Amino acid sequence: MLDVIAIGEVLIDFTPADPTARGNEQFECNPGGAPANVAVSLSQLGVKTAFVSKVGEDRFGSLLHETLLRSGVDVSGLSFTNEANTTLAFVHLDDKGDRSFSFYRKPGADTLLSPQDVPLDRIESCRLFHFGSLSMTHEPARSATRTAVVKAKEAGAMLSYDPNIRFSLWETTESAKQNILWGMKYADILKISEEELSFITGINDIEKGSLALQQQFGITVIVVTLAEKGCYYRLPAHEGYIPGFSVKAVDTTGAGDAFMGCLLFKLLEGGIPLHQITQDQINNALTFANAGGALVTTRKGALQSMPTTDEINKLMESKQLNQDSWRPGFHFSPPSHWLNDPNGLVYYEGEYHLFYQYHPFSTKWGPMHWGHAISPDLIHWQHEPIALFPDEHGAIFSGCCVVDWNNSSGLFNGSHGLVAIFTHADTDPESGQPRQRQSLAYSSDKGRTWHKYAGNPVLAEPGLIDFRDPKVFWHSKSKRWIMAIVAGDHVRFYGSENLREWSLTGEFGQMEGSHDGVWECPDLFELPIDDTGKTKWVLIISIGDNPACPEGSRTQYFIGDFDGQTFINDHAADHVMWLDYGRDNYAGVTWSDIPEQDGRRVMIGWMSNWKYANDTPTESWRGSMTLPRALSLTSREEGVVLIQMPVREIEQLRNESMSWSDVKVTPKTPFTRKISHDLLEIEADMDIGSTDEVHIIMKSTGESETVVGYDPVRQWLFIDRTKSGRHEFHSSFSSKHGAPMAQENGKIKIHIWLDRNAVEVYGNEGLVVLTDQIFPDAPMDTISIQVKSGQVILDSLRMDTLRSIHISKNLTEQTSRRADV
Ligand code: ADP
């Protein structure tokens, strides 16, 4: 039994080749025709396939016959005629490389296929019948095609259809449309391009257009091909986009046919009835088809370029490697899917807890859960089951955790435990507006299981639409809990005796600091200033993306005092201080309840930016955290400022150490080292002497390089990630940006942590910080320090390779941990 029979046009494509020595045009002779290509693609993948068509009794007819035969296709249904020549198509490329065709088909042998030529007995017993529309442009081939399609349908075969519109082959556009629509009635599997879909349905939106076709014709599998972007599919129960493969395309002829062949191969191989295909199965089949389509574009011609299973699998594996190559080695990332803000940071009974905004079913932001991880040392993490699921009050937005040591909440039966205070987000049923209210959850078993408080929500302000991200701490002076929470353009402070009842004590910020975006994720804490014995309060405010600001979302801080009611700013209202001058540090907050004898205030941020967070090129996961950083205050001329350095625990990752001192770098003598490790810490103390710019260049084995530089004239520390690797996913990603940083006696200190997906740069011992994501094309392998002019002296230079942290996973069944009440 044959698996597949394909019917339709077969022809010679004459594709442009290099001109002759005299400058005359030359054409290369390439066998083609969409259904013939599909037949060869299937045969190449091991499917028993026959092809039905007609060629002329001429040299080209024999060539097509031979080529199909050699490709393993059953050609007993390929007949010859002396009434017309074999169809020819000349391909012309314009200056931009766009293609147009001249067809020699008036008539062409393939249009003379008659119903008598169709092997109806064989069609009756095949599993799948494939057809297009170009064999319906003229009689008698139109009747032959229709007879075959009707027969296949009656016999219960699956029918696949690729309309493949070429207007110049039709007598009128209307006739094209009517004949194409005829085919739709019989199709079980339809492959269509965006332009074809819009021509047929009159709808430009592919989701709506495919829905219209599904509703009108009941087609089970509709796939819209999107060239290098991959494809979109619609099944009765689900739909989605499957990304394409990035390859160097030289000739896109036949991509759609290889795609079709690969898709049909996968559907036949699985043997699953079409209407029972699961999401995983269609994902898998279309990924395979995208890879097949992509491979054909990497070589000239179509029919003779069809890929093998091995080639396709290889491309798919290499992509897998690429995806994983951006998994951070020592930054926290989720087990899979989407991560954003850190939440619920708390230290309790020997463990650091990290909760985070998590979408467990998608790599884009969506209904928020609280993901969870636990660490003994802030560096090595174990993934825990999801802590908080959305419920009848809505999704679980950002918030905090505290240890209720004295059971002031009454939730712990005389003992102590963890209380999470977070924002519940849903829609107000009366106004239809978004609604954000504050709620509690608690855990009596060290954060392993969580119970939502029965009296949720505990704090609502019906007039405020943006009202979120509560951060709570115990204020010992006034002996009560204080909540800092944002409301669009200001922060509000509430007090409570029991974490359940809250009353407003103050507001701050409406006219202060930066208002480039909505205020989010506040934090408020007190820190000592150097060793002076004095303290100041730090108020952290993240501000959301504003399309007008290239920086996107970022974090500012205020220095001042907290009087138990509200915050009092030390600076003028228009004074703005930025926490991080890189592009990827947002929503950072600090750990609660780190023991007094440790005394540190440790912050972690989400290492992404709302400008492009949903578009970064990782696939199975998206989003990671910055390194945890210890915060301190120092007094400078301009006032008290924040200093940040990664927590000392990070030092345990150091593996091999290399160091140098007194190295002179000039334009002719750069300092360059090959490093066979892509996780690195680099610490350079430099005398910047007479140079006009010094660069620390981190280069990959491919083309990517990320530059950390210092411009002594501008006194400017910067990152240049314009050549750092993938950037096309968003126009604002490729950028060079920096921060003012003064030299101290002609010297600067730069301390870098380089991961597979990010670089963190600390200037002058944490006075200036830049954190950036990068997506290099290959692992880093060279570090080079260069100057454009003059010289710098590397007083000391140290490089440490770093160990990866291998985040382990608590494999407890996710659902068994679900203990919401
Ligand atoms: P058609 O020939 O049907 O118009 P497309 O040009 O959209 O189809 O290509 C079909 C499939 O081939 C796409 O869905 C994609 O999987 C793959 N493909 C096409 N062009 C490229 C490309 N330049 N890079 C990677 N994949 C491609």
Can you describe what's shown?
This protein has 821 residues and is of the alpha+beta class. The protein folds into 3 domains: 4-18 and 27-322, Ribokinase (UDP-N-acetylmuramoyl-L-alanine:D-glutamate ligase, 3-Layer(aba) Sandwich), CATH 3.40.1190.20; 337-648, Glycosyl hydrolase domain, family 43 (Tachylectin-2, Chain A, 5 Propeller); 655-802, Jelly Rolls. It is 15% helix and 39% strand. Strand 43 and strand 44 (758-763) form a beta hairpin. The structure holds adenosine-5'-diphosphate (ADP). The site of adenosine-5'-diphosphate has 19 residues, from strand 12, helix 8 and helix 9.
Strand and helix layout:
Elements (H helix, E strand, L loop, with lengths): L3 E4 L3 E7 L8 E7 L1 H11 L4 E8 L2 H12 L7 E4 L6 E6 L5 E6 L15 H5 L3 E5 L8 H15 L2 E5 L10 H12 L4 E5 H8 L4 H12 L3 E5 L4 E5 L4 E5 L11 H16 L8 H19 L11 H17 L11 E12 L2 E9 L9 E7 L6 E7 L6 E10 L12 E11 L6 E10 L7 E2 L15 E8 L4 E7 L4 E6 L6 E6 L10 E10 L6 E9 L10 E9 L4 E3 L7 E2 L7 E5 L10 E6 L14 E2 L6 E8 L2 E8 L7 E12 L5 E4 L5 E8 L6 E7 L4 E7 L4 E5 L15 E5 L6 E8 L3 E6 L4 E6 L6 E8 L4 E11 L5 E2 L12
Parallel strand pairs: 1-4, 1-8, 2-6, 4-5, 8-9, 9-10, 10-11, 14-33, 17-48
Antiparallel strand pairs: 2-3, 6-7, 11-12, 12-13, 14-15, 15-16, 16-17, 18-19, 19-20, 20-21, 22-23, 23-24, 24-25, 26-27, 27-28, 28-29, 28-30, 31-32, 32-34, 34-35, 36-47, 37-46, 38-43, 38-47, 39-40, 39-46, 40-41, 41-42, 43-44, 44-45
Helix pairs in contact: 1-8, 6-7, 8-9, 9-10
The structure holds adenosine-5'-diphosphate.
